[in-house]
Amino acid sequence: MISRTKLVLCLSLLGAALPNLAGGRAFAGEGGNERFVPQPGYQEFSGSMIARPWPVSHWIDQGVAANDAQHRYDEAVRVISAIAPPRVHVLQTDQYIFDLPMGATENGVANNLLATGLFKFVEPNWRVYPQDCPNDAQFGSQWYHGVDRFDSCAGWDIHTGTSETTVGVCDTGVRFTHEDLQLNRKEGYNAVDQLWESNGGQINDIYGHGTNATGCAAANGNNGIGVTGMGWNLSHRMLRVTNSQGGGSSIEWLNHAAVTAIESGDKVASLSYSGVDNQAVRDTATYIKSIGGLMIWAAGNANQNLTTNDRDADDVIIVGAVSRQDVKSSFSNYGRMVDLVAPGEEVWNISSESDNAYRNFSGTSAACPQVSGLAGLLWSTNPALSPDEVEFFLKTTCNDLGSQGIDDTYGYGRINLRNAIEAAFSGEIPIRLTTSRFVAGVNGDAEVSRATPGERVVFVYSVRGLGSTYVAQLDVTLDLARPAQAGIKTADQDGYALLRKRIPPGTQGTRVWMQAAQFQRVSNVVEVVIE
User: Fold this and answer.
1) What is the pLDDT of residue 93?
2) Element housing 251 (H / E)
3) Looking at the structure, do residues 152 and 197 belong to the same domain, yes or no?
4) What local confidence, expressed as pLDDT, does residue 148 receive?
5) Contact present, 161 and 376 (Cβ < 8 Å)
6) CA–CA separation, 347 vs 350, rounded Å?
């Protein structure tokens, strides 16, 4: 249900001669065929680009010999260098960042590089902007913690978080002297200057946004003053992503801050900025998940339909905003990329104006750190949880809003603190389903782990997509529309089961959704496109 790993591997090899992009060659596509269109105050060109060559493993998967595969990767790097020497090579995600030469444009360079077939993506390095029961004295003003929303007090009766779990807030800085942030603060980092606080990195709130976000995630609770954060005993770290009084940052700095947070031991990187709809962000989220963390990003405040990717086919959790009435905020972005929602209007929390200031905070910027705080709280409840399992509990414990089931306005729904904590505390970890590549005419594998040992595992599939189907024999509700049985296996003593099936010839391009189930237990959904 969480990790519908989208295995779209039907990528054709482009064997055309590579264009020479060195010297004074004109850049194709300039003045027309605009791939990228800036939006003032939301997402603007910065004069630099982010490109990722297809890795060597990609070409080998396509049947290219190893030496030729390495040559293609090296040629991609050469092509970038012919435009401008890369300013940064991000080793963790193999992204090259380079500045545009005089007379070149973002669209022209991207069109030329992508035309070679050597690149997974080429994008602007966008300049993006902020999207704006305890005894705490102003807790009553935090309406979203009520029993008809998060039911937070009941959840906090179970667990309020521990300082061993840290949320990294990647934002405009923090008023670290604020009365409601005096406990559990970790050393800050300036991602622009790449300096830790102890080495002179500035983390003061240069714009007034990051203090609010930090409070939403982890303002100190039960201290008799102020407000309460979602995870009010968690540790919090500020990773400042801008040195601009206007709060503007870049995809480069935001990704760097998020990676630094998780590599430094934080479990969650919270980013309340525009710009989530970029491949560089999704690749960074995948790396972050691979080292044990989660990237959580605001959907944005442009009331736009985010359609680039499916919410369960990437590793970034995207958060939309709802009002007091539990309806989509008029400004909130929506669409199939949005995973879930949280309150984003009149969110009363701490302010950077003084050490004891509080104010209403609105925007997907307010919704995002609430989800980040809840994710940290789940990890604190059970530190052994994997990133996929935390994501699973976040999504499957939401209150459904809008159309029944998962939809493109609210995703899985509005988070519920009590439901999530109870689920994580129960220790019921979902069955995990993974698949191999599915190639028409050859065998494909579906593997299950964490199943109940010795019990049968039923593998099912659908070509109709997601839905809701109750199976009385197993007493489970599958998340597929009109599923069919693919096979039955018995889980071994380690809870592992393998189903190997021959994929029918002539089915290339078919999209298949798979799930596995045991009695009263179901797995995540895996989405596959047959090659």
Assistant:
1) 96
2) helix 251-263
3) yes
4) 64
5) yes
6) 10
Identify the sign of the CA torsion 336, 338, 341, 343.
negative
pLDDT digits (tens, 9 = 90+) for 103-122: 999 999 999 999 999 999 99
3-state secondary structure of 184: coil
Q: 268 with 401, same domain?
A: yes
| The two three-digit tokens of residue 115, written as one number | 């035309």
- Considering the chain, what is the average pLDDT of its residues? 87
User: Alpha-carbon distance 307 to 464, whole Å?
Assistant: 19
Range of the domain at 337: 139-415
**Does any domain span residue 427?**
no
Q: Are 136 and 165 in contact (CB under 8 A)?
A: no
> Which DSSP string do the residues of 279-338 spell out, in sequence order?
HHHHHHHHHHHHTT-EEEEE--SS--B--SS-TTSSSEEEEEEE-TTSSB-TT--BSTT-
Per-residue pLDDT, 5: 30
DSSP 113-141: HHHTT-EEEEEE--EE-B------TTGGG
Residues 137, 156: Cα–Cα separation, whole Å: 17
Domain contains 134: no
The answer to whether 518 and 454 have CB atoms below 8 angstroms apart is: no
In the block, tokens 């989660």 appear at: 294
